[in-house]
Amino acid sequence: MAKQTLKSSNLSMVMDLEPKPEKGSACDTDFSVATQHQDAISPPSKRKRRRRNPMLADDLIDESIQDSDASIEASLQDMSLAARALGQATKPLLIISLGNPGGNYSLTRHNAGHIMGSMLSQRSLELPSNWSIRKTSSYMNVSGPAVAKLIKKENADAQLVILHDDLERDLGSVRVRAGKTSAQGHNGIKSIQQQLPGKEFWRICIGVGRPNSRDQNAVSDFVLSKMKSQELEVLRGKVDEVIAQLAKLSQE
Questions:
Q1: Running along the chain, 252 residues long, what does each successive block of 10 average in pLDDT?
Q2: Where are the annotated segments for Disordered (predicted)?
């Protein structure tokens, strides 16, 4: 496995280039993935457009501006919280993201942990020098051995924090949970709990939403489908919130 080491005054990162997958499954579920289908949505006809209220466009613009202002205000608040929390961060952290290896999975919802880890790495100069960001090179369902190897290789005394996707939360929702709490069907977390039964760690769960259907094939298709650019931007807008939560864990 080829590795590239990038060092800066504030953070040391190791990025795996084309990691060799370990045996396992790409998805939490054990069934085969069905072919995805998208419903075609026809645009409104010209006749329908002529009948629309001419004031509707202005109303939509006003609502869009209000939503944009609220989003900017929320982002500024997150940045302020992150900056204050970082000033009190002292404990070393080993931050490990979960996902599946290879380009076919790189931007899927199941790889939200890896996606957030990469976004954090892009902010490396702002983070404490005793924080390490790593990514597993195994398939999701066998994350436990991969995490154990990284702990042995890195600082075993650092506080372990796992970044992973969360099907039970809305897109972009950030939730912190203790490592020993229920995996809620997430086989990556189950694997870590089985591999490291006595290890205390924290989880930062990144919401990716959930399909309306609870059918297992539908869920599998959903988590293994690519995220749209708008969805990726939602995650990018949550980086400061994740940094703030990491800083709190670094204080405990």
A1: 43 43 54 35 41 48 52 60 70 97 96 98 94 97 98 94 96 97 94 96 97 90 96 97 96 80
A2: 1-53
Q: From 229, 117, 210, select the one nearest 164 (Cα to Cα).
A: 117
Catalytic residues: 110
CATH placement of domain 64-251: 3.40.50.1470
Please, are residues 165 and 209 in contact by the beta-carbon 8 Å criterion? no
Q: Which residues have a Cβ under 8 Å from the Cβ of 202 and sit 6 or more positions away?
A: 159, 160, 161, 162, 176, 177, 178, 179, 249
Domain boundaries along the sequence of the chain = 64-251
